[in-house]
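User: For my dataset I need records formatted as: sequence, then structure tokens, nothing else. Please produce one.
Assistant:
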Amino acid sequence: MSKKSDAMKDELQKKTLHAKTKADELKAKTLVKQEEIKNNAIQVKQGALKKTADAKDSAIMKTAEIKETTTNKTSEIKENASERSAEFKGNTEKTRKQAEGMINEFITSLKDKQEEFGKTIADYTAGEKLLTDVINTENSIIIKTDLPTLTKEDVNVNITEDSVEIIAKFEEKDENLEFIKNERNYGETVRIIPLPIIIDVKKAFASFVDSVLTIELPKVQEEKINIKIE
């Protein structure tokens, strides 16, 4: 009985020792696995930290790049706006000067025309102009003008080599009258007639018969010189 008991005791001790060994091995494996998991977690954390740092650096660089680009664009827009403003101002000034030049040129041209044809403001407000015929004959230019109600004392004629000026003094217009139609001449009326050819001023003469003024203007005769043939 004692031997059997001792055998069972030894067998129990072996099993207990075997179980303890197994437990120690499992514990060791568990510790190794925990260490691996810990190391992996550290690596993952380090990778995450590195990625976060990289992302942060990239974001900072991108923000700086966007800021620089925005600053450059803003400066460019301001510069373009300043140039456009200066260009617009220059164009406006140029347009103003051109308009002033055109107006001055028109006024000068109008004054020249008035001097050329002897027109005044009174001429534009007067009635019909003097009705005149200009006749071209072989040796002279003949001008006929109707001047009803006038005498020769009311008429003045001035001539140059290439124009005739007729000044007629009609009765003054009654400003108290209300005209429905105004075709008669009133006050001093001037008519300047340009001539198509040069006339001999010294040989010109005029007559006034039955309210018709007739002016005869002899043409300048070209002098013919006979050349001796040798």
